[in-house]
Design goal:
The complex is a heterodimer. By secondary structure, chain A is an all-alpha fold. Chain A has 12 helices and 2 strands. The two termini of chain B are 41 Å apart. The chains are: A mainly alpha, B mainly alpha. Chain B: Pfam families: BPD_transp_1.
């Protein structure tokens, strides 16, 4: 803090205040106020996750103990084994990766092409198309659920990989186009024009000039889309039945001899299978995810 | 360079897939919802007849709907107050320069990155009286504590809101943080020289500068709360009774379980109109706010 001044005969004379609190104590207090909230937040978020993990490796009989044991005494992978053998876990993991992977890939192609057009070409029709895409973001899932379900049945896309992938793509393209278009707006079109003048074909210039510049934006969008697709619950719940991805699988676990409605041993194991890759993924891509979130309204 | 007619055709070809997908998955179904909302469709009894506004009138006479509307309002208002207060607080914590900042930001991203179903279904267990983590935690301080959260209406409301806050406040905070980072450090230095304390600085400088940002975020978060579905689907299944059935949950129950598709459509249309009006008004309001 700056020393207080005393007005005396038109001179400003700095007066040192007597230091009641020693400097080291003040510093320690500062550190305390910095770290306590941070640790509290970390605890509030990580502790429930730790509890899910511990529950998943605790033998199911020991889960019914009071108070809860936060350190497993007899750790076991029994619940995981049960899931693999009885709940078709590996197939679900594969289905999830297939659907999410293809959705991101195709969705990215569709989004890059659209964003490129919106950023580079101007016409009244195209402006309308942008407005249409942004407007369609305002239509919530629940409002369209039943007619969409009936429509998918009519055209034979209900409970098919194709149908799910189309719906997943639909859920990610508005946001992806928005981000990519913003990014493209910042790149001068003159780079591409130079390439065209130098004898590049249109598609050559798109592939060899524009795409490489877009790479970081594409990476960011892919990373965020991966999480959004993985977390999508509404789509697989209502538009598929036989095909089960991880997010819906957790609500349809087989009941082992368990008097409670929620087979917690299996739910926690399934939950941790979903959570662990996310923790690793977020730790690796923290920076890109932050950028992606901050540069456009991503639905949580 | 790109102005010629030939390129415009390419442009439309590039845009077409995105437009088609969005048309068939959002625009066509919402028109269909609108149309069906004027019909009495009951797939179980094989009825399909035009009834005009009857479905809309029924909404406000259906006690289940009244309960749903009541809880939806409580949920949205309660959760949004929590989001703003806790979210701004957390954003300030995240903005403090300290050693573990990167780790803390990674941790804070986790709830956002996880599926709501997983959290909601774990919460069902977490709020269990005997074996849940919530009561276990409370018993560290108050050993005799006993409460079955999801069995009583008011505590079930609280639990649902608490879980929603746990999941989405970190996300809200990160978006507020984006606004905080735009405030130049000169402002804070000037305030410091003028003798402002940290609390004064927060209320006189930080808060006014991010208030517009918070307002716009709140619009989006309110819209998402209005259509929340996963949380009650996995956590309470609308219970106890129908007391935590959010409107979105009510719509899907009517549409997919009770097979009253006409009635479900009319609720959906009302919800959509309310959302459109709310977001329109608040966008207009946000434009008026200027700092």
């Amino acid at each position: 803090m700056y020393p207080k001044t005393v007005k005396e005969k038109n001179y400003d004379i700095p007066v040192a205040e007597p230091r009641r609190v020693p400097l080291w104590a003040k510093k320690a207090l500062m550190q305390f106020f910095k770290w306590t909230p941070a640790l509290a937040v970390g605890f509030l978020i990580m502790f429930p996750l730790w509890w899910i993990f511990v529950s998943s490796i605790t033998p199911s009989g020991e889960l019914f103990s009071k108070p809860i044991k936060y350190w497993p005494e007899n750790p076991t992978l029994e619940s995981y084994r049960y899931l693999i053998e009885n709940a078709d876990l590996l197939k679900k993991v594969w289905d999830t990766l297939l659907i999410v992977g293809l959705s991101i890939l195709i969705g990215m192609v569709v989004s890059v092409l659209a964003a490129f057009s919106f950023a580079r070409f101007k016409s009244r029709g195209l402006s309308l198309a942008v407005a249409f895409l942004l407007g369609s973001m305002l239509i919530p899932d629940v409002v369209t659920a039943r007619p969409l379900y009936d429509f998918l049945r009519q055209v034979g896309l209900y409970d098919t990989y194709t149908g799910l992938i189309i719906l997943y793509i639909s859920s990610i393209i508005p946001f992806s186009i928005l981000i990519l278009q913003n990014f493209l707006n910042d790149i001068p079109a003159s780079i591409e024009e130079a390439a065209l003048i130098d004898g590049c074909g249109f598609f050559q210039s798109l592939f060899y000039v524009t795409l490489p510049i877009l790479k970081p934006a594409i990476a960011t969008v892919c990373i965020v889309n991966f999480i959004l697709c993985l977390n999508n619950f509404f789509t697989p719940l209502f538009y598929s039945n036989g095909i089960s991805v991880l997010s819906t699988a957790i609500t349809q676990l087989p009941l082992r001899d368990n008097m409670y409605a929620v087979p917690w041993d299996l739910v926690s194991a399934m939950g941790f299978i979903i959570i662990l890759p996310i923790i690793i993924f977020v730790s690796i891509f923290q920076r890109q995810i932050m950028e992606g979130i901050m540069s456009g309204g991503v639905k949580g | 360079m790109y102005a010629s007619k030939r390129y415009l055709i390419i442009a439309w070809l590039f845009v077409l897939p995105a437009l088609l997908i969005r048309f068939f998955t959002t625009v066509y179904p919402i028109f269909e919802t609108f149309r069906v909302s004027f019909f009495n469709v009951n797939l179980l009894r094989g009825i399909n007849e035009f009834v005009g506004f009857q479905n809309y009138i029924n909404i406000f006479q259906d006690p289940k709907m009244i309960t749903s509307i009541k809880f939806t309002v409580i949920f949205v208002v309660g959760s949004m107050i929590g989001h703003i207060v806790l979210g701004v607080g957390l954003a300030v914590i995240l903005n403090v320069k300290m050693a573990g900042q990167k780790v803390l930001r990674t941790i804070v991203l986790l709830p956002w990155a996880m599926p709501m179903v997983v959290i909601a279904i774990a919460s069902k267990w977490a709020f269990n009286n005997d074996y849940g983590i919530v009561n276990d935690f409370i018993r560290w301080f108050n050993p005799g504590f006993n409460l079955d959260w999801l069995v009583h209406t008011e505590t079930a409301w609280l639990a649902v809101i608490a879980v929603d806050l746990w999941k989405d406040v970190p996300f809200f905070a990160i978006l507020v943080l984006a606004g905080l980072q735009f405030i130049s450090t000169d402002m804070y230095e000037a305030a410091k020289i003028d003798g402002a304390g940290p609390i004064q600085t927060f209320f006189k400088i930080t808060l006014p500068l991010i208030s517009k940002n918070i307002l716009i975020l709140s619009i989006f978060f309110t819209m998402w709360r209005l259509t929340s579905f996963d949380i009650v689907y996995a956590m309470t299944s609308g219970g106890p009774g129908e007391d935590t059935a959010l409107i979105a949950y009510r719509i899907t129950t009517e549409a997919f379980t009770n097979l009253n598709t006409g009635y479900a459509a009319s609720i959906a249309i009302v919800l959509f109109i309310v959302m459109a009006i709310l977001s329109g008004l608040s966008m207009y309001g946000a434009k008026k706010v200027n700092y």
